[in-house]
Amino acid sequence: MGNRIYNVVIIGYGGMGSYHVQLIESNQQLAVGGVYDIVDYRMELAAAAGYKTYASLDAVLADQAVDIVLIATPNDVHKEIAIQALQAGKHVICEKPVTITSADFLDIVEVAKKENRVFTVHQNRRWDEDFRIIKDIIGNKTVGELFQLESRVQGANGIPGDWRQLKAYGGGMLLDWGVHLLDQLLQITDSKIESVAATLSYILGTEVDDGFTSFIEFKDGLKAVIEVGTTNYVKLPRWYIKGTEGTAVIRDWDLSGEIVTRNPDVAHVEPKPIQAGQGLTKTMAPPSEESTLKFPIEKIPAAAESFYENFVSTIEGKAEIAIKSEEVHRVLVLIETIFEAGATKSVIRRTI
Ligand code: NAD
């Protein structure tokens, strides 16, 4: 670890901006250099918390003491702030979804390259423990060859806040939570996507989607269901994955769940028929205990490097950025394809 301390100024001191303060302060090489928000009340809160407040974005960008600009505003203004900050010579971290369209994102990437500054997107859920456990289960082939994956987040509280309900601000659940789940999905396989089908939900009557279900097929045969809901009073599991040798489930953020696999040491034992409603079934009976193995979901060690540690190492030329532009772009193209599939009610066959 180097000795230099980098000053980070937070643009947009709302829910996420004020959370970033904690992440920044826990890194020895980063300091919160100040805050800028267009709403006076948010600036008062920042000042009360002891942070320097800037009178304008221009004032932040003109300050030579500012090394990094962190953008935590609503989605519609990410692009203009990012480009101005890069052109002012700052490194930039932008909240997700980085932009509302994939074309807008490429404009930022071009400026970052020209200005030779580090630009990345806070896809923090790549560090989520549930995701890292699932990735390990898949990578270690604990359930054999993966052929089906279901990843969901569901709540019953509708779309929170104000701007998230408005299209002009880049609202809606596909851009909000979808961007996380799709980013995680694309980290799970190297295979290209072959086709996308989707249905978006407008139950709440907002102009943006309050959830969606997408069906994504990869060239290697993996089929994924990615789903976000805000009208689910009862939730389905966070993760459900099937492989040739078993099934794993993680039910919730508390990591409750289990892995059940075929027992390789025991020849198949016929299950006993069970009463199912008004009939008997062997097909839908649980597999016999003798022929299966059951494992708990084990916690895993923290990732070697956090998001911010990686960002600092990248600035210092000691590491490659964890969240790469090509990856961010691919997720945005996938989001656009899901919108298109939903609007046209068709299966889009496209290599992504
Ligand atoms: P929020 O509404 O709570 O906060 C946004 C803040 O930005 C507000 O204080 C608002 O006054 C300010 N603002 C608006 N326009 C501005 C401008 N032009 N210049 C300066 N300040 C401006 O929203 P939020 O929930 O904090 O979301 C902010 C961003 O963070 C969004 O992009 C969102 O998607 C993202 N986010 C990411 C995560 C994550 O886990 N990575 C979680 C929540 C939100």
Automatic annotation (TrEMBL):
Pfam families: GFO_IDH_MocA, GFO_IDH_MocA_C3. The keyword Oxidoreductase applies. Residues 131-248 form the GFO/IDH/MocA-like oxidoreductase domain. Keywords: Oxidoreductase. Residues 7-121 form the Gfo/Idh/MocA-like oxidoreductase N-terminal domain. Belongs to the Gfo/Idh/MocA family. PANTHER family: CONSERVED EXPRESSED OXIDOREDUCTASE (EUROFUNG), CONSERVED EXPRESSED OXIDOREDUCTASE (EUROFUNG)-RELATED. This is Dehydrogenase. It comes from Paenibacillus peoriae.
